[in-house]
Amino acid sequence: EIASRLHHPGISVVHEMGVENGLHYIAMRFIEGETLAQKIAEIDRAEGGDTTWVAFGREDLPNLFRAIGVHALNGVHPLPQLELWQRIDPEGRYRNVYDRYAHVAFVASASGAPRFRLHSQDYVILEIQPNSPEFRALGITHVLVRDEAATPFAKLSGFEPLATIGPNHLFRVP
After folding, report:
1. Coil/strand/helix, residue 93
2. Which residues, in sequence order, are CB contacts of 108 under 8 Å at separation 6+?
3. How far apart are CA 131 and CA 122, in angstroms?
4. Which of 64, 35, 43 is closest to 162 using CA atoms?
5. How far apart are CA 6 and CA 43, in angstroms?
6. Which stretches of 22-133 are assigned E, i.e. beta strand?
7. Which distant-in-sequence residues (6+ apart) come within 8 Å of 81 by Cβ?
8. Per residue in 26-77, pLDDT tens?
9. Closest by alpha carbon to 93, among 77, 111, 116?
10. Cα distances (Å, whole numbers) of residue 143 to 69, 129, 164
11. 83, 133 in Cβ contact below 8 A?
C-alpha cells in the first residue's frame, strides 16, 4: 500500500495488488527503456563477443551473465576453474576453498593479496583489489557494480564508465 502512494520518475506506479489462485501479484506501470541485460549484451556484441565480466555486489547479478550468454568469472560454476584461480594462487594455498562446484562471488578489497574464503559449502568468495596485477591476470574486461559499491570503481585509474541502468553501473577495465 505504501508503494502505491509513491510518485517519482524512478519508481513504477503500482496499480493493483492482490492474490489470484493462491499467488500474490503486483500490477504496475511498464517503464520504457533498455534493460541491464540488453545493455550488457550490446557491449558484448560490440566487442565481438569477447568480453569477460565480473559483478561486485548482490549475489544474483552474476547469474544474469549466464542467462544472456556472456562470459563471467563469478556466479555458479559447475566445474572448478582451477587453471584460472591458479593465476592468482600459484602455490595453491587456497585450493581447498575453490576446488569445488560453487557459486563464486567477488568482493573488492582496498589492499593486500587476493584471498579466497569459503562462505558455505558451495559458496566461494574472492576478495581482490580491482586495480591489482592479480585482477588483471584474470582477464576481466568489464565489471558490473551496484550503487553501493560504484563510487570506488569510478575513482580507479583507467576504469571507464560505460552505462548506468537503474542502480547498476557498467565499467570497462583497463
Report:
1. coil
2. 56, 127, 128, 129, 130, 149, 152, 153
3. 27
4. 43
5. 34
6. 23-28, 52-56, 71-72, 75-77, 102-108, 115-120, 123-128
7. 73, 98, 104
8. 887 767 778 899 999 999 999 999 999 999 977 788 889 989 999 999 888 7
9. 116
10. 16, 13, 12
11. no
Q: Measured between alpha carbons, how far is 100 from 91 in angstroms, rounded to an integer?
A: 17
Q: For all residues of the chain together, what is the average pLDDT?
A: 86
Q: Supply the pTM of this predicted model.
A: 0.78
CA distance 53 to 40: 9
Instruction: Dig out the grid coordinates for 116 from the structure.
Output: 579466497
Tell me the backbone φ, ψ of residue 90, rounded to 5 degrees.
-60, -25
Cell of 134: 592479480
Sole residue written with cell 533498455: 34
- Please answer whether residues 127 and 117 qualify as being in contact, where contact means their C-beta atoms are separated by less than 8 angstroms: yes
Cα–Cα distance measured from residue 70 to residue 134, given in angstroms and rounded to the nearest whole number: 22
Torsion over CA: 139, 96, 107, 72 (sign): positive
